Amino acid sequence: AQGYSLAEAFATNPNLSEPLLVSSMAAAEQAGILDSMLIEITTYRKKIEKNFEAVKKALFYPFLVLSIAA
Questions:
Q1: Nearest 5°: phi and psi at 38?
Q2: C-alpha span between 53 and 24 (Å, rounded)
Q3: Which of 25, 39, 48, 62 could join 7 in a cystine, given CB atoms 3.0 to 4.6 angstroms apart?
Q4: According to the model, what pLDDT value does residue 51 have?
Q5: Rounded to an integer, what distance in angstroms lies between the CA atom of residue 29 and that of residue 7?
Q6: CB 10 within 8 Å of CB 17
Q7: pTM greater than 0.85
Q8: If pLDDT is split at 50, 70 and 90, which confidence band does 3 have?
Q9: pLDDT, tens digit, for every residue of 27-67?
Q10: Non-local CB neighbours of 23 within 8 Å, separated by 6+ positions
Q11: Residue 45 and residue 1: Cα distance in Å, rounded?
């Protein structure tokens, strides 16, 4: 019995992953470097999340001031 590759499994649910992630996984699977690619993806996602949180914190006070002033 043959199953899906990791990239194919992620591709079946587009809400869980973005196309760049799936493409990177597929390329890493074929190159035999999936383990290092998963580490890179994890690092990338953590940076994105950290930046998103920083932007939310930076915008909180201006939105608060605008909502009180309105």
A1: -65, -35
A2: 25
A3: 25
A4: 97
A5: 8
A6: yes
A7: no
A8: confident
A9: 999 999 999 999 998 998 899 999 999 999 999 988 888 89
A10: 7
A11: 33
The token pair that represents 43 in the structure block? 């690092």
Tens-place pLDDT, residues 12-28: 887 877 888 899 999 99
The identity of residue 5, as a single letter, is S
pLDDT in the model for residue 56:
93
* Continuous H helices in 1-70: 6-11, 19-31, 34-69
Q: At 44, which amino acid appears?
A: Y
Taking CA atoms, 70 is separated from 27, 29, 61, 64, in Å, by 52, 54, 14, 10
Neighbours of 56 (CB within 10 A): 10
Q: Which residue has the tokens 């940076």?
A: 47
Whether the CB-CB separation of 26 and 7 falls below 8 Å is answered with yes
Q: Which two tokens stand for residue 46?
A: 């953590």
